[in-house]
């Protein structure tokens, strides 16, 4: 069941879990990617087993081959557009029975990394090394690479994780605000049902930290002209500023007077 199905929002908002703030964003991304892979390939994977399921590289290589297959279908259906996109054409050799930590697992992960670089044109700054995954040296780099791959693959019809869908919605909103022409979205997507954002505009600062609501999920913050977009991702309140994401708690810790200790 690869391809053109788009994710649905998760279950109702539970209380926001108190993760250490540096870990919170990574956790939210892993949770989103795990749910996405589970739906895409009917995998037994969740946030707690995320690295375990992926560290042999077998799922990653199968995913790469699926992405290449969808790209081929896209190129046949939309040849004109395909000429302007960097589409993958080569598949990855893969040992599906590789065990964790073995040379075969390293080979799989290494092949996937080469494919991301060469076939998907992912820049080094968003790449990870084999050891980052196999020896769990840097989970964050691995997660960021998977997200970037998902962004690129969504352009030609691979279903995207919720976080990427949110990015696309926000980019569209910004384009409309700046009167820019829409991007060539050939693949119509059913609208995501946004989650309720009540209780976000409360602040306990003696001098109020203004969060001016401009429209649903869009705020102007403090006394600057900074626009932030707020979205609910499962039980995380995600804040998009500029080109990046943060979770709400660390964002307020950095910017709201009642939280700032510096």
From TrEMBL:
One of its GO terms (cellular component) is stress fiber. Keywords: Cytoplasm, Cytoskeleton. Residues 27-154 form the Calponin-homology (CH) domain. It comes from the Eukaryota. Residues 181-259 form the GAR domain. One of its GO terms (biological process) is regulation of microtubule polymerization or depolymerization. One of its GO terms (molecular function) is microtubule binding. Pfam families: CH, GAS2. It is found in: Cytoplasm, Cytoskeleton. InterPro entries: CH_dom (IPR001715), CH_dom_sf (IPR036872), GAR_dom (IPR003108), GAR_dom_sf (IPR036534). Belongs to the GAS2 family. This is GAS2-like 2. It comes from Manacus vitellinus. The lineage of its organism: Eukaryota, Metazoa, Chordata, Craniata, Vertebrata.
